[in-house]
């Protein structure tokens, strides 16, 4: 299972639709961006899960598309990718892959990181590390 599948299972299409509406993008474009960006986060999230330091799910007051979700996502990106340069590089690679403007991807990346933290936190809570590892195993 890919991280995008995990996000869709635990967060759902409405979350991507909220992000699309917030940034005035089509849902198809947001999904394409998610498919390009989320796999890069899977390995880092699994590493943190194995170390017992999985980034926390976003608080209830950080719904998808919100400024609070962006702030939470930036914290997750810092923990998972380690630097702003890594985030910028990821956005640039995804832009080349998808044709989506790099500035748009830079705005979407924290939103997706927040969703990924929520999805992995939910999967971990339901199945433990083994369940999360089996769900993300195809990416590692």
Helix/strand/pairing class, anyone? Answer: mainly alpha
Number of individual domains: 1
Instruction: Note the run of SSEs as H and E.
Output: HHHHHH
The helix count comes to: 6
The overall average pLDDT, rounded, is: 83
Give the CA-CA distance, first to last residue. Answer: 11 Å
Strand content: under 5%
For the CA atoms, what is the radius of gyration? 14 Å
Helical residue percent?
over 70%
Characterize the biggest β-sheet. Answer: none
Q: What is the 3D form?
A: globular
- Give the tally of β-strands: 0
Which spans of ≥5 residues are poorly predicted at pLDDT below 50? Answer: none
List the helices and strands and how they pair.
Elements: H1 3-10, H2 13-22, H3 27-50, H4 67-81, H5 84-98, H6 102-136
Helix pairs in contact: 1-6, 2-3, 3-4, 3-5, 3-6, 4-6, 5-6
């Amino acid at each position: 299972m890919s991280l995008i599948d995990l996000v869709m299972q635990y967060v759902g299409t409405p979350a991507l639709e909220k992000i699309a509406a917030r940034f005035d993008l089509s849902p198809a474009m947001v999904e394409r961006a998610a498919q390009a960006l989320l796999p890069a986060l899977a390995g880092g999230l699994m590493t943190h899960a194995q170390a017992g330091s999985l980034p926390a799910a976003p608080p209830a007051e950080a719904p998808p598309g919100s400024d609070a979700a962006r702030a939470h996502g930036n914290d997750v990106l810092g923990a998972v990718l380690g630097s702003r340069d890594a985030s910028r590089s990821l956005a640039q690679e995804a832009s080349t892959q998808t044709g989506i403007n790099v500035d748009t991807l830079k705005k979407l990346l924290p939103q997706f990181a927040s969703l990924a933290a929520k999805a992995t936190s939910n999967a971990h809570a339901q199945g433990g590390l083994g369940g999360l590892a089996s769900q993300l195993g195809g990416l590692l």
